[in-house]
Amino acid sequence: MGEIPLLDEIAVIAALGVLVTVILSRLRLPTVAGLLFSGALVGPFGFELVHSIHSIEILAEVGVVLLLFTIGLEFSLARLKSIFRQVALGGLLQVGLTTAVVAGVATALGEPPGRSVFYGFVFALSSTAIVLRALAERRELDAPHGRFIVGTLIFQDLCVVPMVLIVPMLGTAAQGGDMAQSIGVALGKAAALVVATILVARLVVPRALRWVAAARSREVFLLAVLALCVGTAWLTAQAGLSLALGAFLGGMVVADTEYGHRAMGDMLPLRDAFVSVFFVSLGMLFDFRVVMQQPLLVLLLLVGFLGAKGFLATLAAFAMRFPARVAWLAGVGLAQFGEFGFVLARLGESAGVVDAAATKPLLAAGIASMFLTPVFVRVAPHLTAGQRLLLPLERLIGVRSIDEADGGDEHALAGHVVIVGYGVAGRLVARALTACGAKYVVLELNAETVRVARAAGEPVYYGDATSEEALGHAHLEKARALLLLMNDPQAAQRVVDTAKRVAPTVPILMRARYILEKEPLLAMGATDVVAEEVEGGVEILARLLRWLDVPRNVIEERIDEVRASTQTTERNVTIPRRALGDHGDLAELKIESALVTEASAAVGRSAAALGVRHETGALIVAMRRDGKLLEQTDPNEPFLAGDVVYLAGSVGSVKKAVDLLTRPLAGPAQAAGDELGLSA
């Protein structure tokens, strides 16, 4: 049998990729870094183990299409609208500022306008895969700097679509063409295509996927989704636009249907396999000789990514009124080359915007920045030098407002509670303190949250609780307690350390996400720490045992066992109540009500005289008389007209009891017989 070179080379790529990635994971470097490095090793500038470069690039192109398709799956039209409102300002500042500054520097160095804009685009994008993984590992996605970074990355992903449209047009500008006209034509085509996509998404795709899903075959459904992905990409290519744009729109089409989550689950393994090939192919572009031949240029570009780009991202965070620490961490998190920067570089080469000689140093510096990012993200929270350098700029921009409110009545009063964080938990605590008449002051880093709360008259101020200055303006030394409800565990530790210096006698109550964090925080000086995973585990345990019809006293014993081994609570044990029908053994019992009217034979007679329990089997559990609920009823007390009687029992028993209580009064003979006890 003949040899299949491409198959051999894919096997080499897969084996080496796994080996290098596993080794680098021991150094806590991301998977993407391992794939890039393995590509550099097997590529034409490394050990030359792969020769079918063109075939590998075709597979990589499929990976790009699948990557953008799954990104489109995450952005339905409705979600896109809500996300855009949340992240547009910060993302627009970062992308716009970086693009403008880089383009300006390139123009000053003599580059033509089209190429200058191209460089701006490439520098503006960051690595979504690397940064999100680093934030997730450090549990900082919900921290203030994490929210800013995630929002900016989302905006960058959305900007890829117009960038992919514009980059081919920049080539005509470099050759003296009309760039504005070319870009206008491309954007016009894209707008028409988006409108057509929305119409297809609303009218055709849901019916087609419903018809395919009726076949109950996972393979057929996956093939249909793949056809939509590749089909829309091919149609956009036929219209003179990019494959990437079509794949993104195809994903949005499916995301607006009820099958979006299923499509994402089915496509993820396929996407991950091809995207891995994509990153390996990008690593093949890394030329070690460029680093040796142009070390100064590569070093300057690397400083541009890590230093200049990070500083511009920091300025964008400052403009969103974040303090120095948050802006510093946001700048570090966004200071690297991005995956889609490689896509734009390849697109720029094919469109004639730049040549390989210009992109090789850029790619070398970009890959180096992606390697260094996980290390910098891990080290940055522990470095206060960068934060201190930014403090003058913070004061110049005026992001802090807790000092401005220092003269207010809230801060002049002693015996208050200082709350750090005004999320769901912070609002609940503030509401309870208000109801109890207790004074409090809140420090919050979300400027929009502060604005809304201040408009509602709440004593919420913008300030960074990790600084002694902010805690001093909050008069922590006069407070009764400090309550930490932060989503940033590193920042929470710094607040505890700072608070013990500012006011060592003030008790510190705080929450932590994991029980393992409790003892270190107590050792640092926290007075009491509540672990969220324990409270969530106790609550779900109580609900589960209740659904399993475990008796209440047994549930309380199990909860006490958990509490004894983890953390105690000051609250009484509460177990959610269940409806009668929720109990498996009592599912056949029903509760029904019956109104005793003036014409009813039950008027003037008691339950014992009627024989309600003996004759029907139903039990009278309560009765409402004159608007009052009587939980205990005397079986010998006569019924009155207007009484509402509540009965419990099986369906048949309850029906008999209702008939007995509501049957009309019979004639005189029947009534006389009833009085003598002759009726059944």
TrEMBL record:
Signal peptide residue numbers: none
Annotated membrane topology: Multi-pass membrane protein
Boundaries of every RCK C-terminal domain copy: 578-663
GO cellular component terms given for this protein: membrane
Domain RCK N-terminal: from-to ranges: 414-531
Entry GO MF terms: antiporter activity; monoatomic cation transmembrane transporter activity
Alphabetical list of PROSITE patterns matching this protein: RCK_C, RCK_N
Protein name per Swiss-Prot or TrEMBL: Sodium:proton exchanger
Record organism: Polyangium spumosum
